Amino acid sequence: MSILVYFSPKGTPITDSLRVAKAFSKKHKNVLQSIDRLECDAEFSRLNFGPSTYTDGRGKQQRAVLMTRAGFTFLALGFTGRKAAEFKQGYIAQFDRMEAHLRQPRPAVTPMPEFMNPLVQVQRVKATAARLLRLNNDPGDIMRHHRAVMKCLTARTPAQYVRDAVAQGLRVGSWSGRQVLRRLEPAKAATAAFLDQQVAHGRTLEQLVAAGVPQALPAAFAAMLRAGITPAELPPT
Prior knowledge:
This protein has helices at residues 17-23, 28-36, 42-48, 69-76, 82-103, 118-136, 139-154, 158-167, 177-184, 186-200, 205-210, 213-226; strands at residues 6-7, 13-16, 49-55, 61-67. The chain is α+β, with helices and mostly antiparallel strands. α7 (139-154) crosses α10.
């Protein structure tokens, strides 16, 4: 099961009508109609359903609806059948995991210069991989995350990025795309580490891309590198 529940900008676990439609193999317009027909009072609707939009394949803004755990549960009561029951259980399990995550002590914030440290970058990769595995127990999520990070930072997949580096004469051996990125574009490697940390803390890469983080941060890290700002030396482990 893919990631169906994610954190809102306020840090609340939510899902949305598009994900519900895809998960339950329904047309999005039908999910919206089901939400509009819910016989819940105005206060419950205000607290548990919120307006949103998305861009369709023609580049037009279309309506979507955000919903909390309570809102999703109220909506899903009307979904029947064995497959629907399986997906309802999966949704609820993801809400449970994310709410449990919120109850955990919050990790210390990493100072921005530390993201330029290759050791920190590796730590962030491992932390993100661990979280993605906890969510769905699907190693494919890790590969998809790394591919998406490389794509939004370099417009290439990890394999394409490595092939281009070899074509330019770099001897990479069995290096991964991230390792080559650290060698060729340290500002983007630092940005990738920041994205990893944010995903490990519960945000989605889609949210970060929509906010413009992958576009803005490389220039900031490049400026720090030009100014001679380097990460503090890590304490011995």
